[in-house]
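Example record

One chain of 274 residues, shown exactly as stored in the release files.
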Amino acid sequence: MYVNTPIVTLNNTIDMPLLGLGVYAPKHNSEVQQAVEWALEAGCRLIDTASAYGNEREVADALRASGLPRQEVFITTKVWNDDQGYDKTLRAFDRSAEKLRLDVIDLYLIHWPSSPHRLDTWRALEKLYTDGRVRAIGVSNYYQTHMDELLERATIVPAVNQFEFSPYCYLPDILAYCRKKGIQPEGYAPLVRGEKQNDPRLVAIAEKYGKSTYQILVRWSMQHGVVTIPKSVKRERIRENFDVFDFVISEADMAELNTFYDNTRVAPDPRDIL
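Predicted structure tokens for this chain:
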């Protein structure tokens, strides 16, 4: 289904590519269609968008321009905080589906656990799933307390939990939690928006493998079994981010990278959300 792309199998038996493209690009939305086209050309088969990104139409245009069969590209979008609640979520989904020009969306996520209506939002996602309008449902930016609350009430276990993930934001407990519950972890901002590209420790490891620091960060995330969605609107960077299948980071270097945690984040810390 996803040619030449490693996959993971979700808890409902749906296959999902292990590496994709994130399209959060508020200053570059006019470039998103081209970026998605370049990514698909490079072998990418997972595109991660959201209603809040304002570029679902551009993703749809790129998918159409690529000429790829619909079933070969995995599309994720998300419901934003202002649209949470049972009925509002159903309406938000309809808007996203219309913009994406899709009858069925592969993965639909709650973007943040910020809304007091988040349990009703999940109920709406369960309806969308049972109605066959989405192939999988999940959450984003949920840590253990949010997951515990959700799982107490959910009738469907989330297939995916997407959260910020890099060596500098590495919390093994949430990975272990997801694995115990059968939830696939997915990591955004693996490149830390370039903030750490000159970290001497990272540079030294990259030089050892003849790779860029960005490629090391992507590969590290993937070797943790985490679906990884680096963001870029630059053709060469997109190609570079997908040129990560010809090497393996050693156990010793993985262990060293695991020690880089300093809670550097590009998004708010979900642990601050009650």
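Notes: The first strand starts at residue 7 and ends at 9.
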